[in-house]
Amino acid sequence: MNIPQFIQLYQHNASAVAHELLQGLSAPQAFTSPKYLYDTLGSRLFEAITELPEYDLTRTEAQLMRLHSADMIRHVPTNACWIDLGAGNCEKAGRLLGPLKAERYVAVDISVDFVRQALGSLQHQHPGLAMVGLGTDFSGGLDLPDVLGLNPAQARVLFYPGSSIGNFTPDQALDFLQSLHRACGTAMGSGLLIGVDLVKDAAELEAAYDDALGVTAAFDLNLLLHINRLVGSDFALRDWRHLSRFNALESRVEMHLQARHAVTVQWPSGVRLFAAGETIHTENAYKWTVPNFEALLHSAGFTQTRVWTDRAQRFAVFWATA
Hints:
Rossmann fold; 2 domains; 8-stranded mixed sheet; 3-stranded antiparallel sheet; 25% strand; globular
């Protein structure tokens, strides 16, 4: 049986993280990057969100993968190297590696510790499959290091499920997809398999990001505790509430934390007064139409596309050939 390899490239830089966060918190419209929602507790809360009745994105995507697996095999290359972006527990890719006869699997996450246990389990299921855990921050674009030793003649399948592309603005999404196109390499048949959440009723979208049980609110509020640890601030949860709203003009769901009353927040190098009702913009989730996302893929350099959607056109999985 093969043994997974682990390569950790990303190194936490506490001063750079604090600088980024404080720049956002000091902006006229305070904001933070959504990546800071995912500390250990935040990641667990997000897993709980995917089980909620209001948030059917994950279930719909999994159903599409099951229902259309035979057709996917006709389009997605077999015997390829799979590069799983934001792999986490590797569960989504794990369902496809066998049917698509992958020859190598690269699980990419910001920390190899996030994927270490999952890769160990997955290796037992696929003992002959070469596996690598790569710890890198690809939020600014994907750059595959030479140390991976990828075979340029082997087709690559870049796998980006879960509609995480929605966290990027359209301009950022184009830049990111262009980096994925470059990462596909030059081998015939390489491409991108990506999940995309589609535009739907505004009330339904807002409920998906503000559920009745309050799990998404806890997920959002936990960000403040994470910020306190990272920058030494004194945010208090009782001062803030979670808001979710659909911005139809921008075609995105916005998550905000709103001050319940005027509140002063301090950190070692400064202070900010938030007026009652003022918000911190914590996440965007852009929603696409099939034609608009196909056009974006073509603008990024991808050529032929194949799309699978549910009957109600609530979610889509695209295969885009590089």
